[in-house]
Amino acid sequence: MSPITVTILNAIIAVVAGVAGAVVLFWILNKLTELLPSKPQELVKPYVFILPAFAALGLYLVYPFFQTLVYSFANADSTAFIGLANYEALLSSPNFQTTLVNTFLWILIVPSFAIVFGLLIATLADRLRPTGEKVSKTLIFLPLAISAVGSVAIFRLIYGAAPTTQNQTGLLNAIWVALGNNPIQWWQTSDFKLNSLTLMVILIWTQAGFAMVLLSAAIKGVPTDTLEAARIDGAGEGKIFFRIVIPQIRATMITVFITVLIGVLKTFDVVYVATNGGFGTNIIALNFYQALYVQRNAGQAAAIVIMLMIVIVPFLIYQIRQFRAEEASR
Amino acid sequence: MSQSTTVPPVSNPGQTKDPRTTAIRPRRRKESGGHGEDAGAPAPLWVKIVIALLCLMWIIPVFGLAVTSLRDRTDAAASGWWSIFTGPSQLSRLTVENYVQLFQQTDMATAFVNSLAITLPATIIPILIAAFAAYAFTFMEFPLRNFLLVFIVALLVVPNQVAFAPILNIYGQFGLNGQFAAAWLAHIGFGMALATYLIRNYMATLPREIIESAKIDGATHFQTFWKLIVPMSTPALASFAIFQFLWVWNDLLVALIFIGPGPNQPLTVSLVSLLGQQGQGDQLLTAGAFFTMVLPIIVFLSLQRYFVRGLTAGSVKG
Known about the structure:
The complex is a heterodimer. By secondary structure, chain A is mostly helical. Helices cover 76% and strands 0% of the residues of chain A. Chain B is globular. At the A-B interface, α1, α2, α4, α5 and α6 of A face α2, α3, α4, α8 and α9 of B.
């Protein structure tokens, strides 16, 4: 058998075994509970149903969180406690300070622009005929299906730079040079954070479709009668948009902002693939990966995750509040 | 249950199929209806132009990659992909040679199979586990239920990064690193909160009377789950499935850490190594990048409706 056939067979066996295993697990758990007399069975059954889910969450998020918290106070190979030294070392390092500044810019700029573009497209496409609306939205939405690695491969053809003597094969430089300038190494130029900004464009490109879908649903939910009433009163389209539509979709805008923000905080692959954090482009999620794998410093890596976690806590609280409000109104 | 009118209207597009919801909200337009359609007048020209420009901005990068992947190496190095519009001879020089080379010289075909072997179980298994949990949260009463539900909502935003170092240590003890199962289990764990949350939100909109009557007919919870609730929840299960499929297929971080470069590496890891060998492999890179996108784009386009429904039902509710 050729190697690829073996791989395919292995893959099929793995898929079948994995899925069948999960089904059998539930069947056995259910049979075991049914052995109990009916009173305790009623009591135990809900927990049996949620047990595998919580086992997964416990093993992959809850336990590791506490373990990471402990590691963050320990040395590089987690053999001795060193107190707050990891945090002190990180916060006093100029590189990490740059990382923090960059991360802050990323979580401010990417969600904002994703919302601006998403809102623009959602509002305008809402006025097109159904086919036009559908096609334009699909095009904007499409990058969401593309991996970050793939996006960087795509954008290399936009940001590419060739020596002055050659034809520019990167679209942006081709335009820039045609206007009479010298080509720019977009990803290596750290003046005014130019390289970080050009990398952010990639993430905005993928996230705008996400913002658009949610905002579009919200805009469609704005009752037509309020819009009609405003039109009859002689309000211009701009005024209607800012005074009537925006206030009504504000809650959705906040949700989109936070969802994209949290996504951006966890994103490491765009920068990893494009510059590997060089030229002053590092961000916190990538810095974590480098601490763990390049510098092999489990203590600092853990401290970075804990700081990431601290940034996320306010949003976590907001999320829970929102959920409680929704449930109360159910 | 879902008879409220105070829920922000946006949280409902996924549920318009539920006859009761539509009955309560007669004002709600059908999903495709825009405000422009009601007005009956065609959109002004400037709207069409702005939309057209935005669509171009969004699709040109992908188009550029597709064209470049069909140009031979010297052509691609000598001029930009847009020269197929300026020099007609360039158009006739397009070739699939890069793709032929890609499969001869790289392990992309194996990586494709690996990606499938990682993605399929990592998509299907969590759905089953989460559906059971969602059923319990929706249709069963038990102490700590609400607390545990809020706990899941909180876990939605916890970064996966917390898990890597501790899980690597555990995997090391069991020799799991580098195996498909290492990635499955990780994706099951990382996707579980969203899966449970999305599916429960949908189940909460199902009519309770059906469950009650099934109970009276003597059906156990296990039977009700399989015969009634799973079929009725198909839209929610499908929308999570698409989420998870795209997420796992496009994932680089979990693949790098738990599988790493090697015989089991998925497409994203292969593509990174192509990106690394700049210069010699540029024509393979464009072809390879496009190749990795084909399946997710097909899945996405054909199931877009479910995906949108999942997004609007899930994220806004949170």
